[in-house]
Design a protein that fits this description.
By secondary structure, this protein is an alpha/beta fold. Helix content is 36%, strand content 24%.
Length: 343
């Protein structure tokens, strides 16, 4: 199979793990264009990476040899950019979130489906080996039925992070800690425990930050399978702590702490994976993490697109976490529980 030619669109803060992954994958993918409308960002990118620069989105759209685009533009541009790419018959791997609202996210997913192009979403926490192992144990029935599933996402971002134009703004980003940072761990929670049926949430902007959207949110959850849980998500927790997912089940309990898994069974057996691992990205430098999980996600997406299969992290599957986040914020605004639909 020949190497697919792809375009990298958007060269901002999120580009490094993608570009590093593409360098690792040079034997199976060719980067035809790297493009940003910002000349400064194009120049900074060219100084770090050996990929050819593109001069416009129109050039990429018109090049029939380009089969796929990785889109890293701001969330509020996703629908417009992806619609043009899908209309040109190009597969799309999209940086999270899908869009700034569930309605726009659903429209984006439908646009790609109707165009017959693959749509993947960069929710790379699904590729952490500890999380993969926990899902395997649950699928095999080793832990039995889940009784409770909770997460603590206690991160730190200094004010200068939010001083960047558009960062944390409702119109550009769609939300704060939930949609921008917490989405990764919340998505993994749903992959482990299943969909949420009802959420009762609270959200606020604390005195720690000057920003438009929430930097602290908490919620109580009732999952569709009857399990209960809680969520705490914040970018005010100095100096930043590894994200935690805790599972209480019929035959034992499990804790994911960053990239580490600890499982304790009622019969005395234990299982530990990646003990004392440091996941990174929880503090002032949000990009201080390895790109291994991005590489695996990109490689699997390219294979799925080439063979006509559904990507492992599909646009459709990414709607669930977006619905949870929007439901939590709606609950906070209305001061009442919100019942979530499967879509």
């Amino acid at each position: 199979m020949s190497r697919p030619r792809i375009a990298l669109i958007g060269l901002g803060m999120a580009v490094a793990p993608h570009a590093n992954s593409l360098m690792d994958l040079e034997d199976c993918v060719e980067v035809a264009y790297a493009f940003s409308p910002s000349r400064e960002r194009r120049e900074n990118f060219a100084a770090r990476y050996p990929f050819p620069l593109g001069d416009s989105l129109d050039t990429i759209l018109a090049d029939d040899s380009v089969s796929t685009a990785i889109v890293l533009t701001p969330p509020n541009t996703h629908l417009a950019v992806v619609s043009r790419l899908a209309g040109a018959g190009k597969h799309v791997l999209l940086e999270k979130p899908l869009e700034i609202s569930v309605a726009r996210a659903e429209q984006l997913v439908n646009t790609c489906r109707d165009a017959g192009v693959a749509l993947g979403v960069v929710l790379q926490h699904r590729y952490r080996p500890a999380g993969v192992r926990l899902r395997q144990l649950l699928a095999a029935g080793k832990l039995g039925r889940i009784l409770a599933a909770s997460t603590g996402i206690r991160l730190w971002r200094p004010q200068d992070y939010y001083d960047q134009p558009g960062r944390g703004d409702k119109d550009r980003d769609g939300g704060g800690v939930l949609l921008t940072q917490g989405i990764h761990t919340l998505d993994l929670l749903l992959q482990i425990a299943g969909p949420v049926a009802t959420v009762t949430g609270f959200a606020t902007t604390t005195p720690v930050h000057r920003m438009q959207t929430e930097d602290l949110a908490v919620a109580a959850l009732r999952f569709a399978n009857g399990a209960l849980g809680v969520v705490e998500a914040s970018t005010t927790a100095f100096p930043g702590h590894p994200e935690r997912i805790e599972i209480t089940a019929e035959h034992g309990s499990a804790t994911l702490l960053g990239t580490e898994l600890r499982v304790q069974f009622h019969n005395g057996e234990t299982e530990i994976i990646n003990a004392d691992a440091t996941p990174g990205g929880t503090g002032a430098d949000p990009m201080a993490f390895p790109h291994d999980y991005h590489r695996g996600l990109i490689q699997d997406f390219l294979m799925a697109a080439a063979t006509g299969k559904t990507p492992p992290v599909s646009g459709e599957s990414a709607l669930a976490v977006q619905r949870l986040i929007e439901g939590l914020l709606a609950s906070a605004a209305r001061e009442e529980p919100v019942h979530l639909s499967a879509g």
